[in-house]
């Protein structure tokens, strides 16, 4: 039985996304300074180091107060009528 080279054993490594906590694949051919994207939430990272793998989140558009519901639809007219 033949011996596998180290290159094939480390073809893909994984790192967790800071935003959605899903795994991001770091392929063996990627290098420091390359960009990777989370398939789940589309967050973009730059590879800062490979040993250990360290990523830097680009364009942190996610904010704690963001939600999918948007405006609640109520106007100030209700408060002016005394419905508070």
Helix-residue proportion: under 10%
Number of helices: 2
Q: Main beta sheet: strand number and arrangement?
A: 3 strands, antiparallel
CATH topology of the domain at 9-60: the name is Rubrerythrin, domain 2
* Shape by Cα distribution: globular
Strand order of the largest sheet: 3-4-5
Terminal Cα span: 78 Å
Instruction: Name the CATH architecture of the domain at 9-60.
Output: Single Sheet
Run of helices and strands: HEEEEEH
Tell me, what is the CATH class of the domain at 9-60? Mainly Beta
Radius of gyration over C-alpha positions, nearest whole angstrom: 22 Å
Describe the structure.
The protein has 84 residues and is mainly beta. The chain has a domain at 9-60: Rubrerythrin, domain 2 (Single Sheet). It is 10% helix and 31% strand. The chain has a 3-stranded antiparallel beta sheet, with no helix packed on it. Strand 3 and strand 4 form a beta hairpin.
Concise synopsis of the structure shown:
The protein has 84 residues and is mostly beta strands. Helices cover 10% and strands 31% of the residues.
Please tag this protein with its features:
mainly beta, about 10% helix, disordered N terminus
Write the layout of secondary structure elements.
Blueprint: H1 6-9, E1 12-16, E2 23-27, E3 35-37, E4 44-50, E5 53-58, H2 77-80
Antiparallel strand pairs: 1-2, 3-4, 4-5
């Amino acid at each position: 039985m033949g011996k596998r080279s180290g290159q094939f054993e480390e073809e893909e490594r994984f790192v967790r996304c800071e935003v959605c906590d899903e795994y991001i694949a770091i392929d063996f051919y990627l290098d420091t300074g390359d960009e990777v994207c989370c398939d789940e939430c589309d967050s973009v990272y730059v590879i800062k180091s490979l040993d250990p793998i360290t990523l830097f989140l680009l364009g942190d558009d996610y904010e704690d107060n963001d939600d999918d519901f948007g405006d609640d639809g109520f106007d100030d007219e209700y408060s002016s009528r005394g419905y508070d």
